[in-house]
Design a protein that fits this description.
It is globular, with a radius of gyration of 24 Å. The chain has a two-stranded antiparallel ribbon with strand order 1-2. It is mainly alpha-helical.
Length: 315
């Protein structure tokens, strides 16, 4: 969709009519879109990645209703796409202010603000914002995950581990906090603990069988299946990432056979990702000619879709 097309979404898609035949000083009058049309146009432009147009529509809407929370959210997302996290954080902050205390989305918006603050280089403010959410909503796992990741980015390993431990206590039996604790151990150089935790996460994660997953992913985008499809893709990707982390640690320890086994398992879930790491990570260079691994990548089906054979260059 071009900029001009996007500019006219409200006028044409929603059916605003040009008053044909009524000229004024040689110009044709065009009806001004109302607030609903401005919001719809801003949303469409934001979704298709036309951030400048989304900002234009949203700002016009805010002139009519400065306290329209959704427009502030749209502006925050657009500025994130434009790599302007400072402005994004400001609009998220205003969206939080406009949210009711009992609105469950309020805390999620506060976490988006924390991540924008971090991206803008305001590490202390980002941690403070995420910490505030853990205090007001201690059972919100996302808050502990965001707080832990912020500490991990700053190499504050003890604080990161404490946050992920808090998440693990509230989600016993879930793989994600365990995987994040493993990543923390890996970052701080504790390979033995990282291996132990990644193996635990590998046992905890549950990916449906290939046939069941393929059936879900092949289902038309009906409303009742969209959430399930999205959840499945996320779990499949996380599972593959855990397997790759194990493969890296095992390769570094000289456990080549175990490493290849983990690479093959990851390839059945996310072949594209495995092909990429094989091309780009020197640690895996010795395994690029593994006949069995190449056979998995070339012939076996992944959870997402059937694989195409490797080309002559091994891609």
């Amino acid at each position: 969709m071009t900029s001009e097309t996007c500019r006219r979404v409200a006028l044409y898609a929603i059916g605003v009519l040009v008053l044909a035949g009524l000229g004024y000083f040689g110009f044709v009058y065009e009806a001004e879109p109302d607030l609903g049309q401005l919001v719809a146009s801003a949303e469409v432009c934001a979704k298709i990645g036309s951030s400048d147009d989304g900002i234009q529509w949203a700002e016009r809407g805010l002139k009519i209703d400065p306290d329209h929370r959704y427009l502030h959210i749209i502006l925050a997302r657009c500025y994130e796409r434009k790599d302007d996290p400072d402005r994004a954080a400001g609009y998220y902050a205003r969206a939080v202010e406009l949210s009711a205390e009992d609105d469950p989305q309020r805390e999620i918006l506060a976490l988006h603000r924390a991540e924008a603050l971090s991206a803008a280089g305001h590490a202390d403010d980002a941690v403070a914002a995420a910490t505030a959410v853990t205090r007001s909503s201690p059972d919100l796992l996302a808050a502990w995950y965001v707080l832990g990741r912020l500490h991990l980015q700053a190499s504050e390993y003890d604080q990161a581990e404490a946050a992920f431990d808090a998440a693990s206590e509230r989600a016993r039996g879930e793989f994600e906090p365990v995987a994040l604790l493993a990543a923390t151990a890996e970052k701080r150089g504790d390979e033995d603990r990282a291996l132990e935790l990644y193996r635990k996460a590998e046992l905890l994660i549950s990916t449906p069988s290939g046939d069941a997953s393929s059936e879900i992913l092949a289902t038309p985008e009906a409303p009742e299946t969209q959430v399930r499809r999205s959840e499945l893709r996320a779990v499949v990707l996380k599972h593959a990432e855990i397997l790759l982390a194990l493969a890296r640690l095992q390769a570094a320890r000289g456990e080549d056979e175990k490493s290849v086994e983990r690479l093959e398992a990851a390839a059945r879930l996310q072949p594209g990702l495995v092909k990429k790491v094989l091309r780009t990570e020197p640690l895996f260079a010795p395994f690029r000619e593994s006949e069995h691994l190449r056979a998995v990548l070339a012939g076996e089906k992944s959870v997402e879709k059937g694989l195409k054979p490797l080309d002559a260059a091994g891609r």
